[in-house]
Amino acid sequence: MEDFELVILCGGGSSSERNISLLSGENVFQHCKNAFRTRKVILERDELPDEVKKCGKNSVIFPLTHGEFGESGELQKMMEDCGLTFIGSDSKTSKLCMDKEKTKQVVSNVGVPVIDGFKFKKNFLKDPSDIISKFGDKLFIKPNAKGSSIDVHPISSSKDFINVINSLDEDTEYLLEKKVFGYDVTVCLLNGKTLEIVNIRPKHEFFSYEDKYTAGMADEICPADIPDDMRRKVSNYAEVAYKACGCRDLARADFVLTDDGDVYFLELNTLPGMTPVSLYPKSCFAAGLSIESLTKILISSALSRRDNAKQFVMQEAEVFV
Questions:
Q1: I need a labelling partner for 223 at 20 to 30 A (CA). Which of 180, 189, 197, 320 fits?
Q2: What's the average model confidence in pLDDT over 79-84?
């Protein structure tokens, strides 16, 4: 691998997941700083810092900017416009996967089962009684474009439903989904292929923000203790979803598995958390990959993409010679 500098972006500006971004960036930095030239850049605003815009051709950007702006395609578009080489999905795919409802539509079209539900804004919500009669009173309401289980509301009665609706922000798009009874698994993907699957068994009703980032609040079993046929099925669905959405380098696909053997897609995360307690590093370790080894693979993918693009431009230019 040629001489290069790894630039780790973290912070995510004003994102609601800023703190997780900082923890992810610090964890990767500590694992990589002795392996190759590495520097860390914290985003304080929703913009690409000048020092990153001026990165040379031998720099590879690793954005660990979870949440709004940093993961929604805006930051990726800025890096593309500057001609920067970066790890992760491009701006188009990042924007798509940040929208949970649109992602569900794409993966459903290629045969991946999804949970019944719809996107809405508070002021345009129909009569709650109509919704409960259609979906039942066991529901989840969550922001359509946030991660880390932030502002996710479980509902178990008509009273819960009304209380949650009254608490929602008027300008935010939400996703309402029917509750599927089962257990959560997450499929971590590297270059489109499944690593080890993680079986998540939270101590509470669902895998909340607190459960995700507090040690001991959930049992995270990796490799997942699921039957081989279920392992093959959910792995295949994850890889199909990854390809259908145009992901590249890395991603994490979340599913619900039922006791009857059904599998339901939840969402695709194009920049999975890399904190010491995050699921993606846990899957990597179970597959025999350290953070340093993973990062080397991701850097190689990014550099190969850059070099292939250069070769394509040269070939196109030769046509007109």
A1: 180
A2: 96
